[in-house]
């Protein structure tokens, strides 16, 4: 889902060995009574515009949690272990009631009535943290909050109490699925998220046949929306942002009486829209000519792949390989993540995307990741018997530093590696 296109309307465990080692180091230092300096605070200095743990260098006011979630989820999808401080930053953005705002500059300050909680940011954070693992309490509280603000029609709006829309309802479905919930069983007044999506699905006649609308207009009429349709297809299939190629089934277009049929209808609409414009979607601001919409095209590729429309998904991916580089560089981490999701959904290699390495480009927008998951596992095994030695070696270093030698040792800490 291309959040940037819709603003302002919507905007693995941390290594257990390292945690254990840190605790042991502190205990050992206390035993011998050595005075050591306080650990460096990972938060930015006053001169830094944004937190050092955050991906991207643009103002995070409207999309900080969203882009961080997509960046971390994309890294996990390709086997990259994100920097722990970036994962921790995301988890600390949560308010006490479980919801997330688009961005909180000071996560130590309690959320209050003025904090604008956001179903999209909350759902994206759930999908990322669930994939990374080790944050069940955070994701559990977040899902609890999402359930508490479900609308009577079964759906969700961008903000609590807002009218249900296809995009928000679909990204919440992705969050529910990510934590093992069955969306059809998450009901309000007897209506599930799928009921809400079916009400936002157009029939097979007239303009926009098969599409999803974002929301009904003031007259209650539905208008086709390509961005909403890409989201609606995924939501109707019970999928999140990361998918594998699915299987095509059912008629091309029929009365959307089931979520599966609504997804089929929506996929048919996307195929038609993409075919008209040489494999990509377009968008236009008032008074301007239509321009290629790279983000929504990437989302459409994911949706089509999930629905089994692999031929068109592949064609549109190849268009993105040829044309999306400038857009991604200007847009930042969320854009690279969307392209990685599209490549993953179609079985393409995100490390050779039209000659570019999307993973390397994404990693460069924030803190260097620790290592690949595979390498991390091997390294943890090799280190498993060396904790005791590593702890007391580190204590010795602390004592030497306290004596004023002033050397900086890396010791038992792993070097950061580019995947």
Automatic annotation (TrEMBL):
Stored Gene3D superfamilies: 1.50.10.20
Segments crossing the lipid bilayer: 391-409
Signal peptide span: 1-40
Region described as Disordered: 365-384
Entries under InterPro entries matching the protein: Prenyltrans, Terpenoid_cyclase/PrenylTrfase
Alphabetized GO MF terms: catalytic activity
Span of domain Prenyltransferase alpha-alpha toroid: 69-179
Keywords: Membrane, Repeat, Signal, Transmembrane, Transmembrane helix
Protein's UniProt name: Secreted protein
Organism: Streptomyces viridochromogenes (strain DSM 40736 / JCM 4977 / BCRC 1201 / Tue 494)
């Amino acid at each position: 889902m291309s959040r940037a296109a819709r603003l302002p309307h919507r905007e693995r465990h941390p290594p257990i060995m390292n945690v254990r080692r840190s605790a042991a180091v502190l205990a050992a230092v206390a035993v011998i009574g050595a005075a050591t300096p306080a650990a460096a605070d990972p938060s930015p200095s006053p001169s830094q515009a944004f937190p050092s743990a955050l991906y991207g260098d643009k103002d995070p006011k409207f999309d900080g949690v969203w882009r961080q979630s997509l960046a971390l989820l994309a890294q996990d999808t390709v086997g990259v272990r994100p920097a722990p401080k970036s994962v921790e930053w995301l988890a600390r953005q949560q308010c006490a009631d479980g919801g997330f705002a688009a961005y909180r500059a000071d996560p130590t300050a309690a959320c209050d009535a003025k904090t604008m909680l956001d179903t999209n940011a909350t759902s994206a954070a759930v999908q990322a943290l669930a994939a990374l693992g080790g944050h069940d309490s955070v994701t559990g509280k977040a899902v609890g909050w999402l359930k508490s603000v479900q609308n009577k029609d079964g759906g969700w709006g961008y903000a609590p109490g807002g009218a249900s829309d296809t995009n928000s309802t679909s990204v919440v479905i992705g969050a529910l699925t990510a934590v093992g919930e069955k969306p059809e069983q998450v009901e309000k007044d007897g209506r599930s998220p799928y009921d809400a999506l079916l009400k936002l699905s157009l029939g097979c006649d007239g303009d926009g046949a098969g599409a999803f609308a974002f929301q009904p207009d003031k007259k209650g009429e539905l208008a086709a929306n390509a961005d909403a349709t890409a989201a609606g297809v995924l939501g109707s299939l019970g999928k999140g942002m990361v998918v594998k190629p699915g299987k095509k089934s059912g008629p091309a277009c029929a009365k959307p009486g089931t979520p599966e049929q609504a997804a089929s209808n929506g996929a048919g609409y996307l195929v038609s829209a993409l075919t008209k414009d040489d494999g990509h979607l377009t968008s236009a601001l008032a008074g301007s000519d239509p321009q290629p919409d790279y983000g929504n095209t990437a989302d459409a590729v994911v949706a089509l792949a999930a629905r089994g429309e692999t031929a068109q998904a592949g064609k549109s991916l190849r268009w993105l390989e040829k044309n999306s580089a400038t857009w991604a560089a200007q847009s930042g981490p969320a854009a690279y993540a969307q392209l990685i999701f599209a490549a993953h959904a179609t079985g393409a290699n995100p490390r050779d995307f039209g000659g570019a390495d999307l993973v390397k480009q994404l990693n460069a927008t924030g803190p260097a990741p620790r290592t690949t998951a595979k390498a991390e596992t091997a390294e943890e095994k090799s280190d498993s018997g060396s904790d005791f030695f590593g702890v007391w070696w580190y204590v010795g270093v602390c004592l030497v530093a306290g004596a004023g030698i002033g050397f900086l040792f890396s010791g038992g800490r792993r070097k950061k590696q580019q995947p």
